[in-house]
Amino acid sequence: MGERSHGLQSWIDRLNEAELPALAAVVQDLHQMAQQDKSSVQQLADVLLRDATLTSKVLKVANSVYYNPSQEPIRTISRAIVLIGFENVRLIGLSVSLIDNLLTRGPREQLPELLARSFHAAVQARNIAGYLLARSQEEVFIAALLHNLGELAFWGCGGEQADELAAALAQPGVDADQAVRDVLGTSFRQLTLGLVRSWNLGELASLAHAGSAQGDSAVKAVSLGVRISEAALQGWDSPAMTQLVEQLANQVGLSREEAMQQVLASADEAVKVATTFGASKLCHLIPHTDPEQIQLQREQRQARQLQPNLLVMQQALQELGMLVSRKADINLVLDTLLQGLHQGAGLERVMVAVLTDQRSRFTVRRALGEGSERWLEGFALPAGQSEQPNLFSYALRTRETLWMGVPASYSLNDLVTRPMREWLGQGMFFIAPLLAGKREIGVIYADCRLSGRALRHEQFVAFQHFAQAAGRCLEAMAQRS
């Protein structure tokens, strides 16, 4: 169990000492160069060269079509600075460090979502700054990128407290700010400003948090960029977006149509930028601008927010109850089971994995939920005791129904093997043994990974009921045959 942190200073110390010193050092050094007019090409090259992987990633980005359309190969940092400019190389170094230090840490859905929004905000802000400012557009990009630094650092490094907050935020009607204060003892905004101070980022990253300098064009660009990236998640035609596009049109002297085109073009560019920085897994989290894709994303968002439906759940349980006494085939039992768990209990992805190949491994017999088709194609886990023990075998052997990702099951985390994580991702899930009397058939698995919402107690109870009901059907079928 990690240490609990509470209050602003305790989090700042923890993030600086234990979690993010490498990132802090790079960000600090790169920021200080912006302060000194005399920063030399050599100084910038030195900072980036301290870390070989950072160097190679920066060069890779510098060689991308986005930054280097002439495609003249760039092999050294100093050459990159000459060809694409000091500011661009500084910005690339910072963005790559952020992605490397954060994306590789946290399996939590909140992190890529927030990072995607930060990149989207940064590109929107920089392009708005292009209308308002003669220079320092890169400064605006970095300020918007770091606008949620505190929250990014928390989701990346918060450990069990991050799980705790995710569960609190998943409750219906929650006051999000209050939930954050309860778990952290401070707000995300305070945490951002605290890190900005402790990393000596001075003016830069507090740009859009500043209340006083509201008239400053750079502040306006950052603040608009950040708000547009948030509103885009509600849809390009949402009331919030309409208002922001109008504000943008007034501030930069465009018509509303032109301003909307500018915003959509920036969103497309943000996807390119994320790919360029080696964060292509963020791309699908930046709202699409193609009308068909917009529609699709809206539907997916609604699907991700699948809600439990008690009526469907009761019908499915009754159906399973009747199938015990009727001659049913196994497919009907499994379909009713999955439908009840998915549409009824509101579990976003469900699967039944059964023992195959002389009971030597688990393969997926049935799956439901967005993206679960790929499980049917290749998913396999060893079932034998001699091989690496995993949670599927454990649940079946101990006849236990488990809720993973809550403190009571932390001791079993080692049984979630690497192949399991690769197939299923990270986060909470339920797993139950599927038995026909005493005979072991396989396991039932369910999660809500698509939206990243925490699983709830009622869902676990329903999951247990369904697993038992399906077992009774299979037992009756086995006796009849």
Entry keywords:
single chain, 481 residues, alpha+beta, Hypothetical protein af1432, Beta-Lactamase, 2 domains, six-stranded antiparallel beta sheet, 23 helices, 8% strand, elongated, RNase_Y/CdgJ, HDOD domain-containing protein, GAF-like_dom_sf
The best one-word shape is elongated
Number of domain modules: 2
- What percent of the residues sit in helical stretches (DSSP H or I)? 55-70%
Residue stretches low in confidence (pLDDT < 50, at least 5 long) are none
The order of strands across the largest sheet is 3-2-1-6-5-4
H-E string: HHHHHHHHHHHHHHHHHHHEEHEHEHEEH
Which CATH class of the largest domain is shown?
Mainly Alpha
> What gap, in angstroms, lies between the N and C termini?
50 Å
| CATH T-level fold name of the largest domain | Hypothetical protein af1432
Domain HDOD: 20-215
Pfam families: HDOD
Protein name: HDOD domain-containing protein
Task: Tell me what you see in this structure.
The chain is α+β, with helices and mostly antiparallel strands. It has two domains: 8-302, Hypothetical protein af1432, CATH 1.10.3210; 310-480, GAF domain (Beta-Lactamase), CATH 3.30.450.40. Helix content is 60%, strand content 8%. It contains 23 helices and six strands. It has helices at 8-19, 21-35, 41-49, 52-62, 77-84, 86-103, 110-132, 137-145, 149-157, 159-169, 176-184, 188-198, 202-205, 217-231, 239-252, 256-276, 291-304, 310-325, 330-344, 373-378, 391-398, 418-424, 457-480; strands spanning 349-356, 361-368, 380-382, 402-404, 429-436, 439-447. It has a six-stranded antiparallel β-sheet, sandwiched between helices. A hairpin with a 2-residue loop joins strand 5 (429-436) and strand 6 (439-447). The longest helix has 24 residues, at 457-480. The chain is elongated and about 80 Å long. The two termini are 50 Å apart. 42% of the residues are buried. The mean pLDDT is 85. Residues 20-215 form the HDOD domain. This is HDOD domain-containing protein.
